[in-house]
Amino acid sequence: MKSTLALTVAAFTLAGCVDSSNLTSQPTVVTQNIGTLPSGFVATYDSTSSEVVLTVDGVEVGRLAGFSGGAPGFNQYIGGSNAIAEYAATISGAGTVTIAHSTTPASGLSGVQVTRLGDTVLPSGASATFNGEYTALFIDDATLIIMDEISGDAQLTANFVNGTIFGSITNRSAKNNSTTDVTLEETAITAVGGFSGTVTGGGIPFLSATSDGTYAGLIVGATGTEAVGGMTLSHYFGPSNIYTEIGGFIAAE
């Protein structure tokens, strides 16, 4: 399951590497996709029906109802097309994370969408540490069956002077497997307050698997005091025996 990254900015786009003089007001709505999601895919939460609504190019393709489950900070939803979602919002509501997966191959649905809602003014001349929760689905690439769920603690450290961010996922706990900590390698913060980089660690010692992956996210909140992100991590047990972890995190100062 090959990981892809996509960044969509509603209203207008600011491009290029960041410097501290540009850390000002950012676009109202920014969406970043991690993993495999259809083009034009959007996940939203309907507070009236308490459902996660999935659309592609503005056409509703599924509604997922609340289900008993989910890691701390996240709620779990299930629905048609054999779909499952883990959804979370930051305390302010300025950022959301939706982990979406379907066991129906034609759906092309297995990834994470993170969204910033509302303007964000990023700090300048300062650093910040964000702490929060992480949850993930552990999927057999051959069958698309969810084999396990993983939770952990997320931490990000941003340097707004240098325009960089790095982090980790620690205390990782799976229902059926042990797994090591993850390092989110240092990467640049873009001019729209986004970031994407590589992942190391996170192996499954019991199965002697190697792993590699990518992560991406957004700084959110009125003054940039929260962060949302997602990660895909491929676990290799052999040339044709691959499991993919798709996870998301919410964090705040």
| Rg value | 17 Å
Q: In which order are the strands of the major sheet placed?
A: 1-2-9-8-7-6-5-4-3
Mean pLDDT: 83
Count of DSSP helices?
Answer: 0
- Give a count of the beta strands, DSSP E runs of length 2 or more: 17
- Topology as a string of helices (H) and strands (E): EEEEEEEEEEEEEEEEE
The percent range for strand residues is over 45%
- Which term fits the overall shape? globular
Distance between the termini: 33 Å
**Low-pLDDT residue spans:** 1-25
The portion of residues assigned to helices is: under 10%
Structural class of the helices, strands and pairings? Answer: mainly beta
Strand count, sense and barrel status of the largest sheet are:
9 strands, antiparallel
Tell me what you see in this structure.
With 253 residues, the chain is an all-beta fold. It contains no helices and 17 strands. The strands form two sheets. Strands 1-2-9-8-7-6-5-4-3 form a nine-stranded antiparallel β-sheet, with no helix packed on it. The chain has an eight-stranded antiparallel barrel with strand order 10-11-12-13-14-15-16-17. The N terminus is likely disordered.
